[in-house]
Automatic annotation (TrEMBL):
This is Nitrate reductase molybdenum cofactor assembly chaperone. The lineage of its organism: Bacteria, Bacillati, Actinomycetota, Actinomycetes, Micrococcales. Coiled coil: none annotated. Keywords: Nitrate assimilation. NCBIfam families: narJ (TIGR00684). It comes from Arthrobacter crystallopoietes BAB-32.
């Protein structure tokens, strides 16, 4: 379980907006990963970029790929519920999981389904509850993994590591993910622009 905690916390930091604090953590992240055989390789490309490229360049790249591009959305319920009113209920359920843990979870202004937040919660507060959220939203992780892989982004290997930590093998393609999870068309738009038609939201609850 320690290996899983290390992987989740490293992923939480590597998938968050890069800042000076993250750069200061790089040696500790590398050291923790090195203690878990085979784990460091999944993070190597991202850590190398963080450690070598100018911070402003890395920050601009993050904004472009994760803040401005819905193809790489880091909010788990976006992939399953899209821009529907039902998503509000789902976000409330995420908040309830945090409250039930008894820990004070600082969302830092993010929605509660923000992947780095879920990962940090799992790693530092409640590994079982956190892994259940990740397992429930496995289709979201897999769709994000494929999108990152398609675009040649190094974070794809981190997503693969996360998926490998959950039960079962990763689906080979989007069609398999859709068959596994029961995807269908969105039912209730709240007026935001439609997202990539290849990333259809999933019907049904969790």
């Amino acid at each position: 379980m320690q290996r899983t905690r290390v992987a989740y916390l490293a992923a939480a930091w590597c998938l968050s907006y890069p800042d000076e604090e993250l750069l200061e953590r790089l040696p500790a992240i590398r050291a923790a990963l090195a203690e878990q055989p085979g784990l460091a390789a999944s993070f190597a490309a991202v850590l190398d970029r963080l450690g070598s490229a100018p911070l402003a360049e890395v920050q601009a790249g993050y904004v472009q790929e994760f803040d401005l591009s819905r193809r790489h959305a880091l909010h788990l319920s976006y992939w399953t519920d899209g821009d529907t009113r039902r998503r509000g209920e789902v976000l409330t359920a995420f908040k309830q999981v945090y409250r039930d843990s008894g820990a004070l979870v600082n969302t830092h202004g993010e929605l509660p389904d923000f992947l780095p937040m879920v990962l940090e919660f799992a790693a530092t507060v409640d590994i079982d509850a956190g892994r259940k959220l990740l397992t429930d939203y496995r289709p979201s992780l897999e769709m994000l993994r494929l999108a990152l892989l398609d675009d040649g982004l190094p974070e794809a290997s981190i997503l693969q590591c996360l998926c490998d930590s959950l039960p079962g093998k990763s689906p080979a393609d989007r069609q398999e993910i859709m068959r596994m999870a029961g995807y269908g068309p969105p039912t209730e738009s709240v007026g935001l622009d439609p997202y990539d038609p290849r990333l259809l939201p999933m019907q049904g609850g969790h």
